[in-house]
Design brief:
alpha+beta; six-stranded mixed β-sheet
């Protein structure tokens, strides 16, 4: 079956603050021609430089994913990319007047709602879907992420956390626009009170609140969780955002205690295989 490319039908905008920077930002998503890909455009910089949402432009994966191309730098883009990827948007220009997208409610829901408000347009050019031919994995101590051949896109994530309210959690989902909207899109970032001081010293988390992140103290949850296993659902959301950087793909991704760093390392291996196969 031939897969066709998609863009959005009209421009849509949203204004909010960045999760880590706390800086106000206006984000505008624009329709784009076939084969444009997803591109971030910094309209606050001279010449409006752009950076493509592609694995080769990843420069940092500490607590979020950063893309850079010359002066064009954007970070914490994984929630937005996750929503675009799950809804099969292949071509879109994303204009921002600051380096970090708005946090919204801490999940991909804000961006998914924007895409649905804009409408999805099917374009008359086929999209190349990478069918993974062999298993690939990345290990780091007790963490790993692997991708296996699969007819479709499926993600399985396991978290093992010593917190009394978390413990061991596992979530497994075949990703379709419908399953993503129902089970993944609204899952928010998880944080712990003891991390907040360290993050503040690094200048991170300035836009975080108890509403746009699920914050746990040593023995309680200070936020109102949307699911008991919101943590693993959000990890799947993150994986989809990071994996989107290699383009449409069929694979079963299995992760235990993953991270943006491991996601990027897996993506680098996958793009090497994809390039060797010329697809």
């Amino acid at each position: 079956m031939e897969h066709l490319q998609h863009t959005i039908k009209k421009a849509v905008s949203y204004r909010g603050n960045g999760l880590h920077s706390g800086i106000p930002v206006t984000l505008t998503m624009l329709p784009a021609e076939p084969d444009t890909g997803i591109r971030f455009r910094r309209v606050d910089l001279p010449g409006h430089p752009e950076v493509p949402a592609h694995i080769e432009y990843v420069t940092n994966t500490m607590r979020a994913t950063t893309l850079e191309n010359g002066n064009a730098k954007v970070f914490t883009v994984e929630h937005l990319l996750s929503g675009l990827y799950a809804l099969s948007i292949n071509n879109c220009i994303i204009e921002m007047d600051s380096p970090e997208p708005p946090v919204g409610d801490g999940s991909a829901r804000t961006f998914v709602d924007l895409i649905r408000e804009a409408g999805i347009e099917t374009q008359d050019k086929p999209v190349s879907v990478f069918n993974l031919p062999e298993s690939v994995s990345v290990y780091e101590k007790n963490k790993f992420i692997a991708a296996l051949p699969y007819d479709g896109l499926r993600v399985t994530f396991t978290s093992i956390n010593p917190h009394p309210m978390l413990g061991t959690q596992m979530f497994d989902l075949v990703i379709t626009p419908e399953s993503y909207l129902k089970e993944i899109a609204s899952a928010r970032t998880i944080g712990f009170t003891w991390e907040l001081e360290a993050m503040k010293k690094l200048g991170l988390g300035k836009g975080g609140t108890l509403e746009n992140a699920v914050i746990y103290s040593e023995d309680a949850c200070l936020s109102q969780p949307r699911w008991p296993d919101e943590l693993v659902r959000h990890k799947i959301l993150d994986i989809l955002g990071d994996i989107s950087l290699i383009g449409p793909m069929h694979a079963h991704i299995i992760a235990v205690l993953g991270s943006h760093k491991l996601n990027a390392e897996l993506s680098a291996k996958l793009i090497k295989i994809r390039n060797e196969l010329h697809v």
